Structure formats: structure tokens, C-alpha cells
Amino acid sequence: MVILGIDTSCDDTGIGLIRDGEVLSSVVATQTELHEPYGGVLPEAASREHLRVIRNVLSQALEQAGLQLQDIDLVAATRGPGLVGALLVGLNFGKALALSLDVPFLGINHLEGHIASSVVGSDLEPPFLALIASGGHTSLFRVDGWGAYAELGRTRDDAAGEAFDKVARQLGLPYPGGAALSALAEEGDPAAVRLPRPLLRQEGFDFSFSGLKTAVATLLAREPDTCYADVAASFQEVVVDALQRTVRRAVETTGIRRVSVAGGVAANSRLREVLSAEPYAVHFPPLALSADNGAMIALAAHHLLSAEARAPERTELAADAVPYYPLADAGTDGASAGG
Ligand code: KG4
Ligand code: ZN
């Protein structure tokens, strides 16, 4: 079965094709240069750019996979969460494609896509724990089955990637700054600068990163000569430590000793190093599938269509985008999600 997956939840136009769970192609058109001058994503511009490039991204994805439109058996697209204008482009494109090809359509929760991508290259099967750390989200899920997720914790303010981007900006690095900050941190001393450790004494599984950004701003205002590499290394260490501490506590609490990590921050080499040294199994997907892409949406559809999944087999074409879409509501009409 060939599934086409589409994601336009934020600033990447992603389309991928899979056959029986194997990724055949994944094409992502990023809008980094478009949004760089604003230091963040400009929603209106993102929608227009998705509209401009989406047909070309589809052609490339088909070409890479060596397939024709007629080979597609099902179209899946992200319904949410995300920017509503951006979501609508991929969602309506996907619905129209499904209608014209006379194949079923499946609306997917973007986070479900990240979870599906996080098991690629492993034999991970539910139950497992899934950490999603990106520019838009930082959450820890218990995956009881495909279509059955429990959110154990989430960020109370900024996402981990967002914190990387904001601190990178303070250090004069271009947006998005996660990778650049991480490279700078290589040259710094992670113990040089004292920064607050968020939620150190909590019992739950939440995250909080906005205080860190403020602490760095205060430090740089007070001591502008502080070595930037040391700031980068110290900041990165606190973020990685918070993620590791929380995942470890979740492993101990649930007794589930298998963890997957997805989202742009999964590319962070220090996070990989620290989590890989933990006494439980941690799986990182291929880098290309960690960040937003369309193949992960097709992969989520694949898992949801598997025999054991607790999920519907198709979505009504009247289904709307759901900008605020908790994963627990995935597969429903989104009404309870207020969308
Ligand atoms: O998943 P993603 O591509 O897009 C969404 O936000 O959904 O994640 C992008 C985020 C950005 O905030 C970026 O700075 C961060 O991932 N990122 C990193 C690294 N590479 C990307 N953060 C830390 N270390 C990295 N190496
Ligand atoms: Zn994402």
C-alpha cells in the first residue's frame, strides 16, 4: 500500500511517500530564509509560500519515489496542531488530491507524525515513551498503542527548540539558532556559567524553559564580556539535563524502559550523547525524519491502519484544520479540542 503524507503545519512544506511502512521519498521545502529577518515565523508569509511550492514538492516526492499519482492508495495530511493558515494549505491540497484520485483521506495529528517517525529504524513497538522536542512542542508521551497516547508532561512555556532559538538570538546567531548554538557550545565550558535548573524539584513530567532565556539575558546585560561559547555550553547543558532528568523519572515511574526521541532538538549531539548513556533503551530516528516532514504523516497513517490500532480508517472530507489539537483527541473530529 502506497501512502502519500503531507505536512504544512508551520514553515516547512513536507511531502513524503511510503510503501508498506518503508519510506520511499521525503521532500521538504524550508522557508528559513523567508522568516529569518523576523526572527520567527510570519504566519501569513508561511501560508503563501506553502501555496507557491506545494505542487512542485509533490512532483519531486513522486519523482524521488519513482511513482505516479495513480500509484497512491491513500492520502494523509496534518490537521493540527499548527498555524491555521499554513495547515489549511496542506489539508485542502491533500483532500483535493484524495478526491481526484478516488482514494481515502486520513487527517493526522502532527505530533502523532513525530511519534511515528521516531520509531523508524528500530523495532520499537508500543508500549514505549516518546519525547518530542522541537521548535513548537516539548512533550513526553506514553504510547500505549497506535492511536492511544497519554501525555505525561509538556512544557509550561517555551518549547526546547524555541529556547535554543531565543538564546541563540541573544548570542547574535541567525534564526533558527539551535544547530549554531550547539556548534558554539562545543568550544565552551558547560560549568562556566551558573543558570537556574527549571522545575528541579517537581514530581511530574513537565518542562519549563522560558526562565532560562531570561536568565541568559540578565547575565549578558550584567556581564557583557562573558564568553559566548561558555554561555552556549552552559545553557545547552541545563536544557539537556532537564530533558534527561524528566525522561529518566518517567522511565522509573512507568516501568517502560524504551524511549524514542523526535523533533528538531533530537538532532542535538549533546542530547544524543547524554540519553544514549542512560540505563534504558533510547532510539533516535534518522536526522532527516526528526524535523518536520511529510513522510512522518504517511508513517502515522500506516500505523493507524494497522490491525491493532484504535483509530478510524478515514477522515470525512468536511473535517477542518484543528490549530489546537491535543494528541489525546487525535482521530476525533477535533470538537473537544475547541477547533
Ligand atoms: O521539528 P522542527 O524542525 O520544527 C518544529 O519546530 O516543529 O524543530 C526545529 C527546532 C528549532 O527550534 C531549531 O533551533 C531546533 O529544532 N534545532 C536544534 C538543533 N537542530 C535544530 N536545537 C538544538 N540543537 C540542534 N542541533
Ligand atoms: Zn514538528
In short:
This protein is an alpha/beta fold and 339 residues long. It contains 11 helices and 10 strands. It is globular.
Question: Secondary-structure blueprint of this entry?
Answer:
Blueprint lengths: L1 E6 L4 E8 L2 E9 L1 H4 L7 H23 L8 E7 L3 H18 L3 E5 H9 L9 E6 L4 E8 L2 E7 L5 H11 L7 H8 L24 H13 L5 H27 L3 E5 L6 H8 L4 E3 L3 H4 L4 H10 L35
Parallel strand pairs: 1-4, 4-5, 6-9, 9-10
Antiparallel strand pairs: 1-2, 2-3, 6-7, 7-8
5'-O-[(R)-(carboxyoxy)(hydroxy)phosphoryl]adenosine binds next to helix 5 and helix 6.
Give me the Rg, rounded.
20 Å
CATH class descriptor of the largest domain: Alpha Beta
- What topology, given as strand order, has the largest sheet? 3-2-1-4-5
Helix content: 25-40%
Question: In this structure, how is the largest beta sheet organized?
Answer: 5 strands, mixed
Average predicted local confidence, pLDDT: 94
